[in-house]
Each structure stands twice: as structure tokens, then as C-alpha cells.
Design goal:
three-stranded antiparallel beta sheet; 3 helices; 3 strands; binds zinc ion
């Protein structure tokens, strides 16, 4: 949601209702995961293997997580974990989007609170 310009046209009541809706539609926070899924196809090092002729093994799925500038962590995922991990990563982004939208609404509410009453 591209925020503040559109929000300025809404009533304070409408802003509060939108904020309430965003909070209610938060995905379960305990089912969130920050990171990315990466798909890799690997060679095993055996020169007689088909992977040495281009038919690599895989896909192998990794979760990678950035911890800071140049620092990442993560690990291999089992195939049966992929759906769950995709869901958790999606939830993480949705929680972030909702928090961002709530913050934008709250900035607008703060702005109104320090303006004259005509804007309320
Ligand atoms: Zn191989």
C-alpha cells in the first residue's frame, strides 16, 4: 500500500478501522521465518557420475538468512519441509507489510493529533 497520500483523505475513524483490520488479519506470528529459499543442483565429485556430464543432482533446497553485511546462515531443508518453510516465509513478509501499514496509519494519526481540530 502506497501510504500517506491516500490516507490523508480518510476519516480518523476509517483509519482506526483499517488499523484494527490489519492487526486482526496478522498471520500467526509464531509461524514466521525470515530468510530465502534457494534451489541448487550439485555435482558429487565422482568423475564417472552422470553429474560430471551435466546431469546434476537435485534440486537441493537451502534456507539462507542474512545476519548482517556479508554474514549469512542457513542450511539444507528436507523436501517435506518446503511447504511449511514457504508458508512461514510468506507469513513473515505479511507480518512486516501489516506492521509497516499500521506504522503509516499511526504516523498520520499523530500528524492529525498535532493539527487543529478541523482535521479530525
Ligand atoms: Zn554425481
Amino acid at each position: 500500500m502506497k501510504a500517506s497520500s491516500g490516507l490523508k483523505r480518510l476519516s480518523t475513524l476509517a483509519l482506526r478501522q483499517r488499523r484494527e483490520g490489519l492487526a486482526k488479519r496478522l498471520p500467526p506470528v509464531e509461524e514466521t521465518l525470515r530468510g530465502s529459499l534457494v534451489e541448487r543442483y550439485l555435482t558429487c565429485g565422482n568423475p564417472a557420475c552422470k553429474c560430471a556430464r551435466g546431469q546434476r543432482h537435485g534440486p537441493v533446497w537451502y534456507l539462507t538468512v542474512t545476519l548482517g553485511p556479508g554474514r549469512t546462515t542457513g542450511g539444507i531443508l528436507a523436501a517435506e519441509q518446503l511447504d511449511q518453510v514457504r508458508g512461514w516465509i510468506g507469513n513473515y513478509h505479511q507480518v512486516k507489510e501489516h506492521l509497516e501499514a499500521i506504522s503509516t496509519i499511526n504516523r498520520e494519526l499523530l500528524r492529525r493529533a498535532r493539527r487543529p481540530a478541523r482535521n479530525r
